[in-house]
Write a structure and sequence with these properties.
Elements (H helix, E strand, L loop, with lengths): L1 H9 L4 E6 L5 H13 L2 E6 L19 H10 L4 E3 L3 H4 L18 H4 L3 H16 L3 E5 L3 H13 L5 E5 L19 H6 L1 H15 L5 H13 L4 E10 L13 E9 L2 E8 L5
Parallel strand pairs: 1-2, 1-4, 2-3, 4-5
Antiparallel strand pairs: 6-7, 7-8
The structure holds adenosine monophosphate.
Protein backbone atom coordinates (compact mmCIF):
# COMPACT_ATOMS: atom_id res chain seq x y z
CA UNK A 1 0.00 0.00 0.00
CA UNK A 2 2.70 2.46 1.04
CA UNK A 3 4.66 1.84 -2.19
CA UNK A 4 1.57 2.87 -4.17
CA UNK A 5 1.09 5.95 -1.99
CA UNK A 6 4.72 6.99 -2.34
CA UNK A 7 4.37 6.73 -6.11
CA UNK A 8 1.25 8.94 -6.07
CA UNK A 9 3.05 11.49 -3.92
CA UNK A 10 6.08 11.44 -6.24
CA UNK A 11 3.74 12.21 -9.12
CA UNK A 12 2.31 15.17 -7.21
CA UNK A 13 -1.12 13.64 -6.64
CA UNK A 14 -3.12 14.30 -3.50
CA UNK A 15 -4.45 11.23 -1.69
CA UNK A 16 -7.84 11.21 0.03
CA UNK A 17 -8.90 8.42 2.36
CA UNK A 18 -12.21 7.21 3.73
CA UNK A 19 -11.67 4.83 6.65
CA UNK A 20 -14.54 2.30 7.00
CA UNK A 21 -15.53 -1.05 8.41
CA UNK A 22 -17.32 -1.98 5.17
CA UNK A 23 -20.88 -3.15 4.42
CA UNK A 24 -21.35 0.02 2.46
CA UNK A 25 -24.48 2.10 2.35
CA UNK A 26 -25.22 5.50 0.86
CA UNK A 27 -23.50 7.20 3.83
CA UNK A 28 -20.18 5.55 2.99
CA UNK A 29 -20.63 6.26 -0.73
CA UNK A 30 -21.28 9.95 -0.05
CA UNK A 31 -18.02 10.15 1.88
CA UNK A 32 -16.22 8.52 -1.05
CA UNK A 33 -17.73 11.07 -3.45
CA UNK A 34 -16.58 13.93 -1.24
CA UNK A 35 -13.06 12.46 -1.04
CA UNK A 36 -13.06 12.07 -4.84
CA UNK A 37 -14.10 15.71 -5.31
CA UNK A 38 -11.37 16.93 -2.96
CA UNK A 39 -8.35 14.80 -3.94
CA UNK A 40 -6.69 13.30 -7.03
CA UNK A 41 -6.81 9.69 -5.89
CA UNK A 42 -9.00 7.99 -3.28
CA UNK A 43 -8.27 5.10 -0.95
CA UNK A 44 -11.03 3.42 1.05
CA UNK A 45 -9.83 1.35 3.95
CA UNK A 46 -12.07 -1.58 4.81
CA UNK A 47 -11.16 -3.16 8.11
CA UNK A 48 -13.40 -4.46 10.88
CA UNK A 49 -11.04 -3.38 13.61
CA UNK A 50 -11.15 -5.95 16.42
CA UNK A 51 -9.54 -3.72 19.05
CA UNK A 52 -12.36 -1.16 18.96
CA UNK A 53 -14.92 -3.80 19.98
CA UNK A 54 -15.39 -4.62 23.66
CA UNK A 55 -16.06 -8.08 25.09
CA UNK A 56 -19.61 -9.17 24.24
CA UNK A 57 -19.96 -6.58 21.45
CA UNK A 58 -20.83 -7.46 17.86
CA UNK A 59 -17.37 -8.11 16.34
CA UNK A 60 -18.24 -11.65 15.27
CA UNK A 61 -21.57 -10.83 13.72
CA UNK A 62 -20.63 -7.44 12.24
CA UNK A 63 -22.10 -7.48 8.69
CA UNK A 64 -19.63 -8.16 5.89
CA UNK A 65 -19.99 -8.34 2.10
CA UNK A 66 -16.59 -7.82 0.57
CA UNK A 67 -17.54 -8.45 -3.06
CA UNK A 68 -20.47 -6.03 -2.97
CA UNK A 69 -18.30 -3.41 -1.23
CA UNK A 70 -15.64 -3.65 -3.94
CA UNK A 71 -18.29 -3.23 -6.66
CA UNK A 72 -19.82 -0.20 -4.92
CA UNK A 73 -16.46 1.48 -4.22
CA UNK A 74 -15.31 0.87 -7.80
CA UNK A 75 -18.57 2.42 -9.01
CA UNK A 76 -17.66 5.60 -7.09
CA UNK A 77 -14.26 5.78 -8.79
CA UNK A 78 -12.29 4.71 -5.72
CA UNK A 79 -8.72 3.91 -6.77
CA UNK A 80 -7.74 1.46 -4.03
CA UNK A 81 -9.67 -0.52 -1.44
CA UNK A 82 -7.16 -1.21 1.33
CA UNK A 83 -8.42 -4.26 3.21
CA UNK A 84 -5.64 -5.61 5.41
CA UNK A 85 -5.72 -8.89 7.33
CA UNK A 86 -6.01 -8.56 11.10
CA UNK A 87 -2.71 -10.37 11.62
CA UNK A 88 -0.96 -7.88 9.32
CA UNK A 89 -2.39 -4.92 11.23
CA UNK A 90 -1.77 -6.30 14.71
CA UNK A 91 1.30 -8.48 15.13
CA UNK A 92 0.74 -10.12 18.54
CA UNK A 93 1.12 -9.07 21.24
CA UNK A 94 -0.22 -5.54 20.73
CA UNK A 95 2.13 -3.34 22.74
CA UNK A 96 1.46 0.10 21.23
CA UNK A 97 -1.89 1.88 21.33
CA UNK A 98 -2.98 5.50 20.98
CA UNK A 99 -5.05 7.22 23.65
CA UNK A 100 -6.77 10.58 23.20
CA UNK A 101 -7.64 11.87 26.65
CA UNK A 102 -10.68 13.70 27.98
CA UNK A 103 -12.76 13.68 24.77
CA UNK A 104 -13.07 9.91 25.16
CA UNK A 105 -14.33 9.97 28.78
CA UNK A 106 -17.87 10.95 27.84
CA UNK A 107 -20.74 9.85 25.55
CA UNK A 108 -19.88 6.53 23.80
CA UNK A 109 -16.51 6.43 25.60
CA UNK A 110 -18.30 5.83 28.92
CA UNK A 111 -20.28 2.81 27.80
CA UNK A 112 -17.58 1.44 25.49
CA UNK A 113 -14.34 1.59 27.50
CA UNK A 114 -11.30 1.27 25.26
CA UNK A 115 -13.35 1.79 22.10
CA UNK A 116 -11.74 5.10 21.14
CA UNK A 117 -8.23 3.80 21.90
CA UNK A 118 -9.00 1.13 19.31
CA UNK A 119 -10.27 3.73 16.86
CA UNK A 120 -7.36 6.15 17.39
CA UNK A 121 -4.83 3.32 17.10
CA UNK A 122 -6.22 1.92 13.85
CA UNK A 123 -6.65 5.36 12.29
CA UNK A 124 -3.07 6.26 13.24
CA UNK A 125 -1.83 3.07 11.61
CA UNK A 126 -3.94 3.56 8.49
CA UNK A 127 -2.75 7.16 8.14
CA UNK A 128 0.88 6.07 8.44
CA UNK A 129 0.43 3.30 5.89
CA UNK A 130 -1.63 5.28 3.34
CA UNK A 131 -0.07 8.73 3.87
CA UNK A 132 -3.23 10.66 2.92
CA UNK A 133 -3.40 14.43 2.43
CA UNK A 134 -7.03 14.43 3.55
CA UNK A 135 -9.45 12.08 5.26
CA UNK A 136 -13.24 12.14 5.26
CA UNK A 137 -15.25 11.11 8.33
CA UNK A 138 -19.00 11.17 8.92
CA UNK A 139 -20.73 13.35 11.48
CA UNK A 140 -22.83 10.28 12.28
CA UNK A 141 -19.92 9.27 14.56
CA UNK A 142 -19.58 12.76 15.91
CA UNK A 143 -17.40 11.86 18.91
CA UNK A 144 -15.09 9.83 16.68
CA UNK A 145 -14.71 12.86 14.41
CA UNK A 146 -13.78 15.07 17.39
CA UNK A 147 -11.26 12.47 18.60
CA UNK A 148 -9.63 12.14 15.16
CA UNK A 149 -9.39 15.91 14.71
CA UNK A 150 -7.67 16.18 18.06
CA UNK A 151 -5.38 13.22 17.33
CA UNK A 152 -4.22 14.75 14.04
CA UNK A 153 -3.71 18.12 15.66
CA UNK A 154 -1.87 16.77 18.71
CA UNK A 155 0.46 14.58 16.64
CA UNK A 156 1.13 17.36 14.09
CA UNK A 157 0.03 15.31 11.09
CA UNK A 158 -0.43 17.36 7.94
CA UNK A 159 -3.77 15.74 7.13
CA UNK A 160 -6.95 17.70 6.51
CA UNK A 161 -9.94 16.15 8.30
CA UNK A 162 -13.17 16.74 6.41
CA UNK A 163 -16.57 16.16 7.99
CA UNK A 164 -19.54 14.88 6.01
CA UNK A 165 -23.09 15.48 7.30
CA UNK A 166 -25.21 12.53 8.43
CA UNK A 167 -26.85 10.69 5.55
CA UNK A 168 -30.37 9.51 6.39
CA UNK A 169 -32.94 7.16 4.92
CA UNK A 170 -35.95 8.97 3.41
CA UNK A 171 -37.88 8.42 6.67
CA UNK A 172 -35.12 9.98 8.77
CA UNK A 173 -33.23 6.97 10.15
CA UNK A 174 -29.49 7.65 10.10
CA UNK A 175 -27.86 5.10 7.81
CA UNK A 176 -25.68 2.53 9.55
CA UNK A 177 -24.28 -0.89 8.72
CA UNK A 178 -25.82 -1.98 12.03
CA UNK A 179 -29.35 -1.15 10.80
CA UNK A 180 -29.16 -4.55 9.06
CA UNK A 181 -29.53 -6.14 12.53
CA UNK A 182 -33.00 -4.62 13.00
CA UNK A 183 -36.20 -6.63 12.62
CA UNK A 184 -39.09 -4.95 10.77
CA UNK A 185 -40.64 -3.87 14.09
CA UNK A 186 -37.32 -2.62 15.46
CA UNK A 187 -36.64 -0.72 12.23
CA UNK A 188 -39.93 1.07 12.79
CA UNK A 189 -39.17 1.78 16.45
CA UNK A 190 -35.71 3.07 15.50
CA UNK A 191 -37.39 6.11 13.96
CA UNK A 192 -37.80 7.43 17.52
CA UNK A 193 -34.20 8.65 17.34
CA UNK A 194 -34.59 10.90 14.31
CA UNK A 195 -38.02 12.00 15.58
CA UNK A 196 -36.40 13.03 18.88
CA UNK A 197 -33.70 14.89 16.96
CA UNK A 198 -36.32 16.77 14.91
CA UNK A 199 -38.26 17.59 18.06
CA UNK A 200 -35.13 18.95 19.76
CA UNK A 201 -34.28 21.10 16.77
CA UNK A 202 -37.77 22.56 16.63
CA UNK A 203 -37.64 23.35 20.38
CA UNK A 204 -34.34 25.17 19.91
CA UNK A 205 -35.65 27.00 16.83
CA UNK A 206 -38.48 28.29 19.03
CA UNK A 207 -35.86 29.79 21.35
CA UNK A 208 -35.68 27.07 24.01
CA UNK A 209 -32.19 26.93 25.59
CA UNK A 210 -32.39 24.81 28.80
CA UNK A 211 -30.31 21.68 28.07
CA UNK A 212 -31.37 19.71 31.17
CA UNK A 213 -35.07 20.13 30.43
CA UNK A 214 -34.53 19.23 26.78
CA UNK A 215 -32.59 16.10 27.80
CA UNK A 216 -35.44 15.15 30.15
CA UNK A 217 -38.01 15.61 27.37
CA UNK A 218 -35.99 13.63 24.83
CA UNK A 219 -35.39 10.82 27.32
CA UNK A 220 -39.13 10.62 27.97
CA UNK A 221 -39.92 10.58 24.23
CA UNK A 222 -37.48 7.74 23.62
CA UNK A 223 -38.61 5.65 26.62
CA UNK A 224 -42.22 5.78 25.40
CA UNK A 225 -41.19 3.20 22.80
CA UNK A 226 -41.28 -0.42 23.92
CA UNK A 227 -37.91 -2.15 23.63
CA UNK A 228 -35.84 1.04 23.74
CA UNK A 229 -33.20 1.33 26.46
CA UNK A 230 -31.63 4.78 26.62
CA UNK A 231 -27.86 4.65 27.06
CA UNK A 232 -27.38 8.40 27.06
CA UNK A 233 -28.97 11.67 26.00
CA UNK A 234 -26.50 14.54 26.32
CA UNK A 235 -26.10 18.13 25.19
CA UNK A 236 -22.41 18.87 24.77
CA UNK A 237 -20.17 21.54 23.36
CA UNK A 238 -19.27 20.36 19.85
CA UNK A 239 -15.52 20.95 20.37
CA UNK A 240 -14.76 20.05 23.99
CA UNK A 241 -17.62 17.52 24.31
CA UNK A 242 -18.27 18.93 27.79
CA UNK A 243 -21.86 18.85 29.03
CA UNK A 244 -23.72 22.10 28.69
CA UNK A 245 -26.56 23.56 30.74
CA UNK A 246 -27.41 26.27 28.26
CA UNK A 247 -27.74 25.53 24.56
CA UNK A 248 -25.61 27.87 22.50
CA UNK A 249 -23.81 28.04 19.15
CA UNK A 250 -22.15 24.71 18.45
CA UNK A 251 -24.17 22.71 21.01
CA UNK A 252 -24.71 19.11 19.95
CA UNK A 253 -27.46 16.78 21.10
CA UNK A 254 -26.14 13.21 21.12
CA UNK A 255 -28.23 10.09 21.70
CA UNK A 256 -27.40 6.40 22.12
CA UNK A 257 -30.03 3.71 22.65
CA UNK A 258 -30.26 -0.03 22.63
CA UNK A 259 -33.00 -1.66 20.67
CA UNK A 260 -32.97 -5.41 21.25
CA UNK A 261 -29.37 -6.43 20.60
CA UNK A 262 -28.65 -3.39 18.44
CA UNK A 263 -26.96 -0.23 19.61
CA UNK A 264 -27.95 2.90 17.67
CA UNK A 265 -26.56 6.44 17.84
CA UNK A 266 -27.69 9.73 16.37
CA UNK A 267 -26.88 13.39 16.90
CA UNK A 268 -27.53 16.88 15.67
CA UNK A 269 -26.02 20.31 15.97
CA UNK A 270 -28.76 22.20 17.85
CA UNK A 271 -27.58 25.68 17.07
CA UNK A 272 -25.21 26.48 14.24
CA UNK A 273 -22.34 28.85 14.99
CA UNK A 274 -22.14 32.05 12.94
P1 LIG B 1 -18.20 2.67 9.60
O1 LIG B 1 -17.98 1.78 8.43
O2 LIG B 1 -19.55 2.52 10.22
O3 LIG B 1 -17.07 2.62 10.60
O4 LIG B 1 -18.20 4.15 9.04
C1 LIG B 1 -17.17 4.62 8.21
C2 LIG B 1 -17.32 6.11 8.05
O5 LIG B 1 -18.59 6.39 7.48
C3 LIG B 1 -17.26 6.88 9.38
O6 LIG B 1 -16.56 8.10 9.17
C4 LIG B 1 -18.71 7.12 9.68
O7 LIG B 1 -18.94 8.27 10.47
C5 LIG B 1 -19.26 7.32 8.28
N1 LIG B 1 -20.71 7.07 8.27
C6 LIG B 1 -21.34 5.95 8.64
N2 LIG B 1 -22.68 6.11 8.52
C7 LIG B 1 -22.87 7.38 8.09
C8 LIG B 1 -24.02 8.17 7.79
N3 LIG B 1 -25.27 7.70 7.92
N4 LIG B 1 -23.83 9.43 7.37
C9 LIG B 1 -22.59 9.96 7.24
N5 LIG B 1 -21.47 9.26 7.51
C10 LIG B 1 -21.60 8.00 7.92
Amino acid sequence: MTVWSNDQITHGRTIGIVPTMGFFHEGHLSLMRLAKARSDVVVVSLFVNPIQFGPGEDLDRYPRDFERDITLATGEGVDVVFAPETAAMYPEPILTTVHVGNLTDTLCGKSRPGHFDGVATVVAKIFNIVKPHLAVFGEKDFQQLAVIKRLVNDLNWDIEIIAHPIVRESDGLAMSSRNSYLSVDERNTALCLSKAIRYARSRVREGFRDADVLIEEIGRLLREHAGVTVEYVQVVDGQSLHDQQVIDNGSVLAIAVRLGRTRLIDNTILLQGD
